[in-house]
Structure formats: structure tokens, C-alpha cells
Amino acid sequence: MSVRKEEPRNRFDEALKTALQNAPAEGCPEPEEVEQAVVLGKRFVRWHQVMDHVAACKSCLETAQTFEKLERAKKISKMAWLKKFAETHIRVDDGLRDGATKLPKWCLAFLRQFSFEAPAAAYRAATTNRQPAVRVASPPLENSSVVSFPAAIAWRETPGAIGYEVSLEQSRPGIGNGFETVAKAVTERPEWVHGARIKPGRRVRIRIRPRCGDLELSATTVETAVEFRTLSNKQREQAEWAIDAAPAAPLTAAIVLSALGLHIEALKAAERIAENDQRKKLEAHIASKIEARRAEMGD
Amino acid sequence: MGEPGKIGNLADQLEQLRPRLSAFVSKKTRNRADAEEITQQTMLIAFQNLERFRGDCPLSHWAFRIAAHACTRYYRRLGSKETSIDDLPENLVPAAQQQRSEESPDAVDRNLWLQRVIEVAQEACTPTEFRVMMMMYQTGSLDEAGTLLKMNGATVRSHFLRGRANLMAKLILEAPDLIGGKLELDAAIGKAQNDQEGFSKAEQEALASPDKRSKAYRSACLKIARHLPNPF
């Protein structure tokens, strides 16, 4: 990439450049703040203040440039995964291809973001000894996403239960705005089909509480709550593409599905990878995500 | 910075930075064993090079740059299939910066001048124009400024040119002492007038009734700026 330069055009420009390059470092923000400004950009709450200072401070500018180089090295290292792990499959020279399958452009973003790092940061560890009375079987608990609602929800029967209170909630738009109840019902059988439609790209919470004949037992029964998110329309298209492409481009399909939270489908796609080492490594990675998901859901 | 007392003091400050460096490296590598090793390496390099620290930036920034260099190296190794991080660390210490001559009257004058120019620039430009302009003066590179400010090169360039014109118009109109004084300014206007390009009719009218928001006035100011002397 050619570096585009703007040379000083007059003596004032030169004087200002010299003065800036020799200015003392005063009132500098902490390096952690500079790093946050570089990594998060305008999402960092103090970005404007920090960048106002960085722009006019040689020392902080050097610090910011060092952090920026680190971020670039991190990204390149992730791309190197393509070379090391998938060099037999993924080609980027003649368009993006997985084997003989030409991949849509958006696949590159999924491949770049993929990392074998432990998903610890993405999932909260189970902090309580929740022992759910019921275990949801469908939609599969292993997936953190569902392609669409309405859906049939089924769970394993709880011994002694004479019925189940089921409620379905969806997140309100915006971050941290809580959930709203979409449907509520009491059912005698461990399955429920609801008619309400959940909007795409929302978090969904299903709560199931067994009702027991014994009131005392009922009061101590632990409610089960599982959470999913519905895919947005675009993510849904991507998931459908990946499921269709799995026979021909299993590696990419597995990565895309795993990133979308459809781990069961991702495992199925990974099973088709011909190369043994790659398959085992990817399967182990997806399994670790499933494990983390189960721990989070208290299963 | 070569005296033993000062070095000892810096070493104490450096030791206090260890938990922050460790947290930074852990966040970057997400691998406990590697993070510990990189932190240890950073501290070792920093202690070994304390004499080279010239005090022209906060010690924390200097130490964090060493840590960031070490992490960058770590990622490059990961990318190039090397796994060991035991090699001798080269180029991890930020390049020794020029010794600032803080005591010299020239430097004091220059820093005071810079402070005033920055104040004028902050008044004359939008916040984005100010950031872009200052970063462009420092780096001279559209790409570097664009990367840090999350903008593309063309946007950086247009903000830079607009900011520069706004600054120049404000300096000529309200702070001629920062660009050499009224006499030098008049001389520069005369030279610009007699220049091959000269002023357009709109620019001449704008100079007669100055308004720093007028496009013609800003354009005339940029022509005048070509003939201004070095303000020092």
C-alpha cells in the first residue's frame, strides 16, 4: 500500500510541524486510555478527549501508533490461521474459495474473526448451583441461536409434575432494556407450541416451572430459564447458505455456523472435513463452545 | 537521566507499573503462560534500558510501548509458525527520542507559541478538523492519521485542508502576532498580490471586507500563507 503524504506547504506549516514534534508531554492520558481509544474507536466514551490530546502530543501519538501496530499484528495473526490451518482448503488468490466452492464475500469476515481462543470471555461461567427441574431438548440447548420462532418447545418430563407454567420473553430493542413477555401458558404435557412471533435479532428467554400436586414441593421447585437469540434476517441467510454449502465447503460452513451460535449444525458440517487433524481440532473447539454454553445454562 | 538516584526512583515507579502491564498483556494474549512470560520480558527490558529513558514521555507510556512491541512480536511469531518467545529481544525498546532542550529560550518561546496556535486552532476548527490537522502536521501521512481517527484518506485530506484554511484565516484576521506580526503580514499580502497567480476578484473583495467564514477569504489567506516568514 502506498503511503500518501502531505508535505508542509509553507514556512508556517514547517514551524508548526517542528513545534509539535518538540513539544513537551504534559497532561497525557493513561496508556490504557490511549489503548482503548485505538481499539474501540468512537465506542470508547472518552475517545474525543483522548484523541484531542493524542493529535497534538508527539509522545501519545507514538504510544497510539504502537498500540495500532499491535492490533494490526493481532489481525494478521488471525489471518495466518488461514494459511496454517486451512491452507489446503481456503484460497484467496482467485476470489475466496473453499475447495472448489466459491464463497460469498462476507465469509472472509467470519474466517478472519475465527480463533481457537477459549470462549471464556464470551460466556459467563455458571455461578450458581442451579439444578433445573426440567431440561429443554428442543430447540437444542447447545445452540445459543435459533433460526426462527415460532417454534415448538419440548422438554423432558419432571417426575411428579402435574403441569408446567411456560412463559416466552423477548428482549426489548436497545441494549440493557430488559425483556418483555410475549406468551404465557400452562400446559400438562412437556411440550408447547406458541403462536406469537419473535422478532429477528432479539434475545429470547424461555421459562418453565413444573407444577406439583404437593404445594410444599412446588414452592421449592427450581424454575428452568434458557436463553437464545434469534438470528437477524441477514444472519438467517448466512446460516442457510452455510447449511447448503456444508457438503462442498465444510470448513467454512462449520466456522460460519459456529460463529452464528448454531453449534450443533457446525459440528455436523465439521464432520465432513476430510483432513483428520483439521476436523479434530475444529470439532474440539466447537465442543468447548457447547460445554461453555451448557455451563452457562446450568445444564 | 543517568544518575543512580534517578534510576533507582524510576525503577521503583516501574515496579509499581507491573500489575498494570500484566493486566494489559493478559488482555492482549488471553493465554496466561504467554502473558506471564511477556510481562516478565517487558519488565526485564525496561529495567535494562532505564538509562535510555529520557523523560520526554511519561514512564508508563514508555513501559506500555515496550509491552505492546513485545505483544506485536508475539503475534508475528504466531503468524509465522514460530512458537518460542525466548529469542533475544531486539527493537523492543522505543527508539531513543531526541533530547529536548527544555531550558533553551528558543524551546520555551516555541512551546508558548505552539500553545497559543493550538488555542486558536481549537476555536477556528471543528473538533474533527482540529484532530486531523494536528495529526497530519505530526505524521504527514493521510493513511496513518486515517487509521488512528478511523477515517478514509480522502476524508482526512478534506478535513485537513479545510482546517488549515480556517486556522490561517483566523490567525491572519485575529492573531497576526503568531505569524510574524502585522508588518510581515502586510509584506506577505503584497507579495501574494504581485505573485504570478495573484488574487481573484472575489478574493480581493474578501480581503477588503474580511470574514473568516467566507470561502474566498480563506482561499486568499492560503495564498498569503505561502509568503509568510518562519514565525520564530
General description of the model:
The complex is a heterodimer of chains A (299) and B (232). Chain A is an alpha+beta fold. Chain A has 10 helices and 11 strands. In chain A, strands 5-11-10-7-8 form a 5-stranded mixed β-sheet. In chain A, α2 crosses α4 and α8 packs antiparallel against α9. The longest helix of chain A is centred in the first third of the chain and has 29 residues. About 7% of the residues of chain B have low confidence. Chain B is elongated. With 232 residues, chain B is mainly α. In chain B, α5 crosses α6 and α6 crosses α7. At the A-B interface, α1, α2, α3 and α4 of A face α1, α3, α4, α5 and α6 of B.
The secondary-structure element order of chain B is: HHHHHHHHHH
**What portion of residues of chain A belong to β-strands?**
15-25%
Which regions of chain A contain 5 or more consecutive residues with pLDDT less than 50? 119-130
Shape of chain B: elongated
Number of β-strand runs of chain A = 11
Uncertain residue ranges of chain B: 82-90, 96-102
Count up the helices of chain B. Answer: 10
User: How would you classify the helix and strand content of chain B by structural class?
Assistant: mainly alpha
Radius of gyration of chain B: 24 Å
- How would you characterize the largest beta sheet of chain A? 5 strands, mixed
Largest chain interface and its two residue counts? A-B, 62 and 68 residues
Work out the strand percent of chain B: under 5%
- Sequence of strands across the biggest β-sheet of chain A: 5-11-10-7-8
Q: What is the number of helical segments of chain A per DSSP (H or I, 4+ residues)?
A: 10
If you average the pLDDT of chain B, what whole number results?
A: 83
